[in-house]
Amino acid sequence: MEPDEKPWELVVVGAGSAGLTAARTARLLGAEVLLIERHRWGGDCLWTGCVPSKSLIAQARRAPPARRRSAGVLEAHDVFTGIDSARESIAPDDSPEALRGIGVRTLQGEAMFTGDQSMIVGGRSVEFTRAIVATGSRPSVPGIPGLAEVDPLTSDTIWELRELPERMVVVGGGAIACELGQALARLGVQVTIILRGPDILPGEIPEARELVRSALEVDGVRVLTGRCVVRFHRDASQECAALLDDGTRVDADRVLVATGRRAGVDQLGLIATGVETDDCGWISCDPTLRTDNPSIWAAGDVTWLPKHAHVAGVSGAVAARNALLGTRRTMHDAGAPRVLFTAPEIASVGTQEPTGRDRVATVRHVHVDRAVAEDDTAGFTRIIVDRRGRILGGTIVGPRAGETLGELTLAVDQGITVQRLTSVMHSYPTYSDGLWNAAIQESQRRLREGMAGRLASLMRRRASWRARRGVKRR
Ligand SMILES: Cc1cc2nc3c(=O)[nH]c(=O)nc-3n(C[C@H](O)[C@H](O)[C@H](O)COP(=O)(O)OP(=O)(O)OC[C@H]3O[C@@H](n4cnc5c(N)ncnc54)[C@H](O)[C@@H]3O)c2cc1C
Ligand SMILES: NC(=O)c1ccc[n+]([C@@H]2O[C@H](COP(=O)([O-])OP(=O)(O)OC[C@H]3O[C@@H](n4cnc5c(N)ncnc54)[C@H](O)[C@@H]3O)[C@@H](O)[C@H]2O)c1
């Protein structure tokens, strides 16, 4: 079937994490699917998001502290070459050739809807019975006076650098500012993070934020909170400066803007489809990801969902199933697992705040032998447990916290109780001991204080009474 033969059973716009998974799922279900991409196959995650950032972080971690501060042009060149090679190793998996190999039809070009069930792509018309919009998000750049004159970097463009600047101002205090700010500082850049809120990482629990903030400071990052940049300024020597609302001036060579995202819906022609956007500009869709147009679903960053590659991927699969099978699987905006890849990492899933009779069990990593052995004890594992002992959620802060998160995510998803988790043997010494010990701690408390504890004490008393009688009889 050629793109202009009609109509396609399913057209997916955007080949990022959401669109790729939607197209692959559609093929698994046996559908004729056309995937359209205007730029690079693999989207943000591969080219400007997860992969380059985690490569940068890993290289910064490996840089010995003595060299970190003296990273020069040569090392910077190596860093960016390392990033390119990570991307290039993964790229073939998401390429049109690989997709065609599994029967997904691909089309390179910018899609623009022209009607309820039609669009145009580079002059070719494409008709469909169902479509999924998976066009992602892009950096949202605030309108600070003078910003354009300092040629700001964003998470889209920073990967094009071939030299590291000596000093960098990062505007924003979220995931990108903290991950990239710390990695760049470890590579020798003098980083100043400026954010208007009272603290970095507003979505994380205070104790986790505090640990990451002190780690940033140990790595040499200056964090200025509750401050707004009122204007940027570039002088004749090409130096730039951020002028803050309290009169402070911060000099820098480059500026990175990391102040959130906005939906990638420009030039998409949504108006022709009746698909609406919400107050924040995300495509408005119900939990089954169906939009106001009954033929169109949306998935990934372009929607109100949390902005993570795995959420995008799962939402792509959900949208494809719902669109093709008429099912009503749902997605929700809270509780998805997420990892912040700073050092220490913050990994969390599910409920973060106890309500009613929920309990919190926390194990500090000074009591986790692996952390002690590695002299990296500034972390903790905290779980929220309901009155029946079921694990509702939790946060892990520490090295490789993201690797323990899988087990916690499974426990939350399956409604596993602390008693059940306690009975599963864990290998020693691992960071997962934090989670296991938190479950043991809570399970022992329940034993002491709960019905099970009362029953155990009754049984103990009865057994010792019997033992005493036995002794007398003899
Ligand atoms: C610096 C950074 C680090 C990150 N790190 C992580 C991480 O560690 N873990 C994690 O889970 N998430 C991370 N994320 C978030 C993650 O990258 C995104 O949530 C994810 O990539 C979103 O996928 P998506 O498919 O919705 O959108 P995208 O990947 O943006 O894909 C959308 C695609 O649609 C195409 N497109 C747009 N409009 C059109 C059109 N009209 N016609 C045709 N094609 C079009 C675009 O070119 C793009 O390829 C990070 C993000 C950033 C910026
Ligand atoms: N490990 C991961 O999963 C990961 C890593 C990086 C990015 N991401 C995703 O990418 C998305 C974008 O990240 P981000 O860091 O740009 O956004 P964010 O929403 O995480 O943080 C934006 C920050 O910028 C601040 N801010 C907004 N406007 C400002 C202004 N004018 N001046 C100063 N501060 C301002 C906000 O208060 C907030 O602290 C996030 O939603 C995140 O989920 C995920």
TrEMBL record:
Cofactor(s) needed, names only, are: FAD
UniProt keyword annotation of Repeat present: no
Q: Which UniProt keywords apply?
A: Disulfide bond, FAD, Flavoprotein, NAD, NADP, Nucleotide-binding, Oxidoreductase, Redox-active center
Extract the InterPro entries matched here. FAD/NAD-bd_sf (IPR036188), FAD/NAD-binding_dom (IPR023753), FAD/NAD-linked_Rdtase_dimer_sf (IPR016156), Pyr_nuc-diS_OxRdtase (IPR001100), Pyr_nucl-diS_OxRdtase_dimer (IPR004099), Pyr_OxRdtase_I_AS (IPR012999)
- Coiled-coil blocks: none
Q: Which residues bind NAD(+)?
A: G172, G173, G174, A175, I176, A177, C178, E179, G260
* Keyword Disulfide bond tagged: yes
Which GO molecular function annotation, any one, does this entry have?
flavin adenine dinucleotide binding
Query: Could you tell me which residue ranges the Pyridine nucleotide-disulphide oxidoreductase dimerisation domain spans?
Result: 337-438
Query: Entry cofactor note text?
Result: Binds 1 FAD per subunit.
Residue stretches making up the FAD/NAD(P)-binding domain:
9-313
> What's the domain of life for this entry?
Bacteria
Where is FAD bound in this sequence? Answer: K54, T135, G136, S137, D301
Disulfide pairs? C45-C50
Q: Which family does it belong to?
A: Belongs to the class-I pyridine nucleotide-disulfide oxidoreductase family.
Provide the protein name.
Oxidoreductase
Supply the source organism for this entry: Brachybacterium vulturis
